[in-house]
Write a structure and sequence with these properties.
With 124 residues, this protein is mainly α. 59% of the residues lie in helices and 6% in strands.
């Protein structure tokens, strides 16, 4: 499992871990039943607090993405990849809806919003 931490990001470190684990599950890099590194080993590798890694693992477990077996470690759960994709699509849809609402509040027409969307989609 490869995790990269951006210490200059405003996003908390545990959230960075959660997002990267989710992405790796979605892209098939992490498979159901695959063990995660121990809390201590990942903390040592990333040079962060073990409590931060534990918080990330606990969050992933609450979301049903990780299962922890006492004495054996944490493993990727048998979560349906489709459910994870739907969750992410819903988040993107909500972000689009908020952007459209803000644009309309500022008096932008639908055509102007489409133009902005097309410009944003062209960016790398």
């Amino acid at each position: 499992m490869k995790i990269m931490i951006n210490h200059s990001s405003m996003q908390p470190i545990y959230e960075q871990i959660v997002e990267q684990v989710k992405a790796q599950v979605l892209h098939g890099t992490l498979q159901s039943g695959e063990p995660l590194p121990s809390v201590r080993s990942l903390a040592g590798e990333l040079k962060i607090s073990a409590l931060t890694v534990k918080k990330a693992y606990d969050f992933l477990e609450q979301e049903g993405l990780v299962v922890t077996v006492h004495g054996k470690g944490s493993f990727i759960a048998e979560k349906n990849k489709t459910l994870l994709e739907e969750e992410w699509k819903k988040e993107v849809e909500d972000a689009f809806a908020a952007a459209v609402k803000k644009g309309r509040t500022y008096g932008l027409s639908d055509e102007e919003l489409r133009e902005i969307f097309a410009i944003v989609m062209e960016e790398p």
